[in-house]
Amino acid sequence: MKDFVIVIHGGAENKTRRDIGSDLEAAYRRGLEEALLVGWEILNSGGAAIDAVEAAVRTMENNYIFNAGKGGAYTEKYKNEFDASIMCGQTLKAGAVAGVQRVKNPINLAKTILDKSKHVLLTGEGAEEFALEHHLEFKPIEYFRTKKQLDELEKTKEEEKVKEFD
Amino acid sequence: TVGAVALDKNGNLAAATSTGGLVNQHNGRVGDTPIIGAGTYANNEVCAISCTGEGEGIMRAVVGHEVYALVKYLKMPIQEACQQAANVYKDKIEGDKNLIALDSQGTIGIYYETDLMFRAFKKGQQPHTVAIWED
Questions:
Q1: By CB atoms within 10 Å of each CB, which of A8, A93, A145, B132 scores lowest?
Q2: In this complex, do B120 and A32 lie within 8 Å of one another by their Cβ atoms?
Q3: Mind spelling out the 3-state secondary structure of A36-62?
């Protein structure tokens, strides 16, 4: 029996401590710890790696501070579009989804594609139809939106305007 | 973007990644996250990888599978493989490439080119580690 391990990431950025601030840094640390331990508990109780990574990622999708699921980035047209994928090293089966807007947990959809579809990657409307057929949870688009990401979009648009002017 | 890689008690590896994409991205733009072999890859014999960063570069460098190939064919240690995969064709492929990985023996690889990477890991009953900055 092997010693089990889980590693997670919540993204990588070019920001300083001052950019983030101590409160948000603490929230990131709590969010990472929570997701890590959710996955670790599954492994510790003898569960499968594929279920541990799905659960850890789902926990971060549900946490608005991470750029996935609730709290995801805005597109140029003020939409939220989500991509996700999952792969099992034992079977080499994979499931992936791109451009969905209303599925609460895109990683669950990717896992359902891995388990129940003959395809690997589904996109947009077809992916959401598949999610409906398999009774996955949907949320209204407002659920995914946060002020933090709206501010990021406005800031980015402003910076691009300045660049164009230059 | 968020992601995870894991090795269970039966020696099975898995990888998962999920993202909201880039801020202000073109509607319909898809990055590396759902591209198997680029942003996400797992193979029990070798390793599991989850990437984050500028998706276009990660796709063009096929970072996930590059790590796999370096470990499988060159027998490169996982940490070194992560670093080399992120830097392949650096003269032609721009953009930050950041990743976490795990080999079949449970050795961890973490490599990032940005100022910070939100990351955490836990091995068996050992204490867990949560980190953000280089130090």
A1: A93
A2: yes
A3: HHHHHHHHHCCCCHHHHHHHHHHHHHC
Which residues in chain A have Cβ-Cβ distances shorter than 8 Å to B118? 9-12, 28, 32, 66
A65 in reach of chain B (CB within 8 A): no
Q: Is B26 on the interface with A (CB under 8 A)?
A: yes
Interchain CB contact of B75 with A (< 8 Å): no
- Where do the H-state alpha helices sit in chain B? 55-61, 63-74, 78-86
- Pick from A32, A53, A76: which is nearest to B5 by CB? A53
Query: Cα–Cα distance between B111 and A95 in angstroms, integer?
Result: 25
How many whole angstroms separate alpha carbon A59 and alpha carbon A96?
A: 18
pLDDT of residue A165: 60
The tens digit of pLDDT for each residue in B124-134 reads 999 999 999 99
CB A17 within 8 A of CB B133: yes
**How confident is residue B135, by pLDDT bands cut at 50, 70 and 90?**
confident
What digits encode the pLDDT tens for the residues B54-98? 999 999 999 999 999 999 999 999 999 999 999 999 999 999 999
At residue A126's C-alpha, the angle toward residues B33 and A123, to 5°, is 20
